[in-house]
Structure formats: structure tokens, C-alpha cells
Amino acid sequence: MILGLDHINITMPIGSESDARKFYGEVLGLKEIPKPKATKSVGGVWFKLPDAELHIDGENVDRERTSAHFALRVEDIMLWVDKLSIAGIEIDITDTKENNLVRGHLRDPFGNGIELIER
Description:
The protein is of the alpha/beta class. It has two helices and eight strands, in the order βαββββαβββ. The strands form two sheets. Strands 1-4-3-2 form a four-stranded mixed sheet, covered by helices on one side. A four-stranded mixed sheet has the order 5-8-7-6, with no helix packed on it. The longest helix is centred in the N-terminal third of the chain and has 11 residues, at 17-27. The two termini are 27 Å apart.
């Protein structure tokens, strides 16, 4: 039986912790949590989500822009559009009236896809 989501793992170039802290900590407002000692060798930063964790590990590989992403449920997506715009981050909004959803798609500083969903 699956009980729920434990964590999401995405990657960033090795040594990009300050960019991750700025985007995920300052812009998105997530709280940083300590990484276990066993995972510190690859670098990275971990954050707490309301019901899971977001793990961002260092990885130096050439990455194409991909459709792989994670989605965050939000309230008042237009406030997020304004906040992201102030931070210089573009977000593409899609209004899906048939499902009563508004979706926003953006990329983090490392090319990872993020979707914001307002139901």
C-alpha cells in the first residue's frame, strides 16, 4: 500500500547551493532542512514541503530541457505570478476551465520543471 509522497529529488550543477537557497528558500519560501551525512558528498540542499521533502543534489551532467517536473498546489496563483515576476522568473499560465484548474509552468535556475496548480 502506498501511503503518500516522501520526497522529490531533482538535481543542480555541483556547487550551486547558493542559487538553490535563493530560488527555493527566498523566492518560493521553503525551509531548508539538514542533509544526512551520507549524502553530503554530492553537495546540494534539501527543503521541507508541507507533506514531503524536496531534495536537490549536485550532479554535473549535460541536461536538456525536459518535460519531467514536480507540481505544487498553491492558493492564488496570480500572487505567485507577481512574486516570480519581481524575482525575474517567467511563468507560463494555462487556464484549464474544464478541470477547474489554473496551471503555471516555470523552470528553476537549473532547468528543472516546476508546475504550480490552483484548484
